[in-house]
Amino acid sequence: MTESKPAGRRSRLIFYQDQVVFDRVSGHFHRLNSSAALVLRALEGGMARDALPGLLEREYGIGHESAVRDAELFLNDLAVLRLHAGDRS
Amino acid sequence: MKDARADGPVVALTGMHRGESPQPGGSVAMSLRRKFPQVRLVGLGYDPMESGFCSVGGDRLDAAYLLPYPGTGAEALMHRLRPIVEREGIELIIPCLDTEIANYIAIEDDLARLGVRLWLPDLHQFEDRDKTNLAALCDEIGVPAPRTAHAHDALTLAGHAERIGYPCYVKGQLYGAHRVHTVAEFHAAFAQIHAVWGGPVLVQQAVVGEEYNVVGLGDGAGGIEGFCAIRKLMRSRLGKGFAGVVVEDPALEDLMRCVIARLNWRGPFEVEFVQAPGQPHMLFEMNPRFPAWTDFAAQIGCDLPGRLVERALGQPPTPLGSCPAGRMFIRHCIDQVTDIAEIARLSTAGARDPLVQDHDAGRVR
Asked: Quick check: A81 contacting B, CB < 8 Å?
């Protein structure tokens, strides 16, 4: 389980209308689809990673196993892209 | 001699060509005009075809002079500068090209006697960040750097290249870099660079990754007056950054501050890093001058050339802003209009007064 980051510090990610996200540390930016924006926003808001499947189940009405798998795959993608959602500086 | 203080500082600067490989002078001029609307700018160059000599925009010059090439040495430079300084009342010179910095360091005392200031490192600081010494400096202070070696002859350097491994970069001490994949390509690159720039020639480990550059101004006591860090978004065929976005990376800033503190760097600088995926930033070059994109930082609140003028001339410093992540630049090329008579005048007299924009006719006269 990933701990929530303390609030009150600046987010590492900057969102542009939930369609593009800019990582102000690496200087990379990425196009987002709606589900990616939802999850990234949640992580930036301090949601723990093991709470993500529940979020996906509620938002998209999918089963628990699919939601767990989707969350894992997305977190893997974030790791590959070095998008450290939830970091503060 | 003009009364320099009556209208604003009189600043001379070099590196006025903004072509395929843009020199920094025009960018510095833009920043200075923004900070000091009454500044008088004297352009110093080597070729009448330098594009900045034709500008009537924000980087326009109030006067222009040709200098002997840097290879002729410090004495020839001083001999040429003396009458220019006396005629123009120059208070400060900002050299913007790698090849000329050592000459200016050598004549700093002579210029001071004429009332001209520089804001440059001393010779030790300058040499410690030289490409041939940078890897050792980085090793000393724990800053990651690509493996680098240098030699004056091709066979010795080829041995270093084998140990570093292909592909690698073959670089001139001041300019030029070729990525080579084979021994044959290495020898061709060595011959080309050695013929143009002389020795020593360097080989450097090729690190594939993102490039990050930081422009800053060292205060000469280990501190930094201000800085702006970017990731290069677009690179030209020559490797020049034609677009960049501001980043706020504490790790990158720490490495930059470590280098500047160790050198006690005085003056402008650009440090260039490359970061392979999952690896720390590696410092592969440190330029002893402003980069050609320095006016981007000035436009978003961090006018480093302006601060240099304040420091060098003993003026109270005005606050510098920090550069917010996400602000970016894209280089945009335009056509400057001039007349062949202007080129002829500069070619024959070695000097030229300001161009005047005829706004009604939309042309330069």
From this structure: no
B→A interface, C-beta within 8 Å: 210, 212, 230-231, 233, 245-250, 277-278, 325-326
For residue B326, the chain A residue with the least C-alpha distance is A24
**What pTM, to 2 d.p., does this model score?**
0.89
Tell me the longest C-alpha to C-alpha distance in chain A. Answer: 36
How many A-B residue pairs are in contact by the CB < 8 A criterion?
A: 36
| Gap between the Cα atoms of B14 and B24, Å rounded | 8
Q: Which chain A residue has the Cα nearest residue B281?
A: A26
Distances (CA, A) of B44 to A23, B17, B241, B309: 41, 11, 24, 17
Q: What is the ipTM of this complex?
A: 0.79
Tell me which of B211, B230, B231 to substitute to probe the interface with A (most A C-beta atoms closer than 10 Å): B231
- What distance in Å separates the CA atoms of residue B321 and residue B327, rounded to the nearest whole number? 13
Nearest CA to B40 out of B70, B1, B10 is that of B10
Q: Each residue's pLDDT tens digit in chain B (365 positions)?
A: 444 445 799 999 999 999 889 999 999 999 999 999 999 999 999 999 999 999 999 999 999 999 999 999 999 999 999 999 999 999 999 999 999 999 999 999 999 999 999 999 999 999 999 999 999 999 999 999 999 999 999 999 999 999 999 999 999 988 888 999 999 999 999 999 999 888 899 999 999 999 999 999 999 999 999 999 999 999 888 888 899 999 999 999 999 999 999 999 999 999 999 999 889 999 999 999 999 999 999 999 999 999 999 999 999 999 999 999 999 999 999 999 999 998 998 999 999 877 655 444 444 44
Task: State whether A89 and B277 contact (CB < 8 Å).
Answer: no
Dist CA B94 CA B105 (whole Å): 11
